[in-house]
């Protein structure tokens, strides 16, 4: 070690600092929380759900995008399963579905039922071998088929047969709404001049657009979604399948992004024109030089966090990491001059930490424990002493490391242990636990974004750019932290945004 002042570099985290209040003429409801996720993608709420198997699968990703954030699908599952989750999100909501799920007249009602259940849709267009629309089958058509007859009843016997009310390609949304109203229908198949099905517009999609005006969407009106990959083994194949399924953002998700394998796959993805439409996030790093390496490799956003997570043990197992506010600040010094957004990943406990992360230099934050208790996270409710919890585990926990595909564990390469031959030789860097049940994501996200708006009011910031520019920190002591939390009273009613 040749550092001149080896212990002079102090690392601070969320609980070490507070934001100074400043003159304000902003009320919280006026604050605009939109921010940059990557070089090309904006979000209206700067929240991401973590790529963890107890946090983000398709349900969470749909819910996050509807709230104006983004979900990153975890990679502790087969390539086919992860790609199918991307597909589910991309199909969940759309201006127009360009490749609708279809069935044929010879399929059985049971098969249609299964498809509708999987894709959470209420009916399917029926096409012939040439793709020509020959009918439509919806819940209404299947209602009177008894459960015993579903496996033997053919679609042709119950479907609504062509000619159907259809729309032409490029139809104006207002014209589609008029057709729905005039004909009292809920699905409008779009056909070309030969009568071949080219798309589908549904009433539900219009309803959802009204209900979630700030949703994170692609130019075709579909919800956006991200997905994690590694850098080892079949990582390239995974990236390709995710791309084919329509993923918007790929996150090269590892515990140490400043490493040859990670930088190499980012470079390759950025060079390959097939991936032109997808933004690539690299991580994780916790230093300026680590962030610089990702910038140089071409990453479209830098994910920061080595060991801050609620379930992480990296800092005690390896003795490595940087307290998160300092890590984010240092990384931003490398990323900002290049206009590359920074993601503060892990360690956030309260809504107030979001503004602290943004002022330190982040553009968005990634959350694990704060979201793992939501209805939309994978896993069932667990009852402990009459209270409701959900399981939450680190991707470096033994349980996650031992989840395996055909040949190896998916999670092992996140911790650079793909070469470890047996489970008893794994070095865990996370724990398995439980978090309190928190209800639907919509209420949790509302409180988190609401907390951020309060921060913006106190600091006099109308936009995230202003918050980052005007925000100033004061360092606090242990006494200051104690004073910051409720003290000297017995809490009798839990607030929706505060738990100890
Ligand atoms: P929070 O604090 O939001 O953190 O629960 C979520 C982030 O933690 C990271 N992560 C891990 N880090 N060991 C680690 O050192 C682990 O087992 C582990 N699992 C997840 C990850 O960056 C996530 O977004």
Automatic annotation (TrEMBL):
Oligomer status and interactors: Homotetramer.
Catalytic site positions: 312, 414
Native organism: Agreia pratensis
Gene3D superfamilies named among the record's database cross-references: Aldolase class I
Swiss-Prot/TrEMBL cofactor(s): K(+)
GO BP terms: GMP biosynthetic process; GTP biosynthetic process
Entries under PANTHER family matching the protein: INOSINE-5'-MONOPHOSPHATE DEHYDROGENASE, INOSINE-5-MONOPHOSPHATE DEHYDROGENASE RELATED
Gene: guaB
EC number(s) reported in the record: 1.1.1.205
InterPro entries: Aldolase_TIM, CBS_dom, IMP_DH, IMP_DH/GMP_Rdtase_CS, IMP_DH_GMPRt
Similarity comment: Belongs to the IMPDH/GMPR family.
Chain sites annotated for binding NAD(+): 253-255, 305-307
CDD domains cross-referenced by the UniProt entry: CBS_pair_IMPDH, IMPDH
Role played: Catalyzes the conversion of inosine 5'-phosphate (IMP) to xanthosine 5'-phosphate (XMP), the first committed and rate-limiting step in the de novo synthesis of guanine nucleotides, and therefore plays an important role in the regulation of cell growth.
Position of the signal peptide: none
Regulation: Mycophenolic acid (MPA) is a non-competitive inhibitor that prevents formation of the closed enzyme conformation by binding to the same site as the amobile flap. In contrast, mizoribine monophosphate (MZP) is a competitive inhibitor that induces the closed conformation. MPA is a potent inhibitor of mammalian IMPDHs but a poor inhibitor of the bacterial enzymes. MZP is a more potent inhibitor of bacterial IMPDH.
Record field: catalytic activity: IMP + NAD(+) + H2O = XMP + NADH + H(+)
Entry annotated with the keyword Cell inner membrane: no
Name listed for the protein in its UniProt record: Inosine-5'-monophosphate dehydrogenase
HAMAP family: IMPDH
